[in-house]
Amino acid sequence: MGIGSDTLLLQAGRTPTDPAGLDALVAEHHAFCPDGIDQGLPAEEYRAGLAAQQPDRGVWAFWWD
Predict the structure, then answer these.
(1) pLDDT tens across 19-61, in order?
(2) CA–CA dist 9, 17 (Å, integer)
(3) Strand locations in 1-65, DSSP E?
(4) pTM
(5) Phi first, then psi: what are they for 53, rounded to 5°?
(6) What is d(CA 1, CA 58) in angstroms, rounded to the nearest whole number?
(7) Which of 7, 13, 23, 46 is the most buried (most CB within 10 A)?
(8) Which residues are CB-neighbours of 54 under 8 A, at least 6 positions away?
(9) Whole-number Cα distances in Å, 61 to 7, 25
(10) How far is it between the farthest Cα atoms of the chain?
């Protein structure tokens, strides 16, 4: 959806809905872009936001300092 010098915004085809899938997604997001969780939302809040999204409309934001 968008890319900048320090950002990446993606629309997911489908966001996991089960707890294990959400936990895996948070772990993968953190491994790829730790700033979004370490300096942004705590992992629990990020996970809760993912769970609240409609599975076919997930938007994932990545940013780096």
Answers:
(1) 898 888 888 888 988 887 788 777 788 778 777 766 566 777 8
(2) 20
(3) 2-3, 7-11, 59-63
(4) 0.70
(5) -75, 150
(6) 12
(7) 46
(8) 15
(9) 7, 13
(10) 33
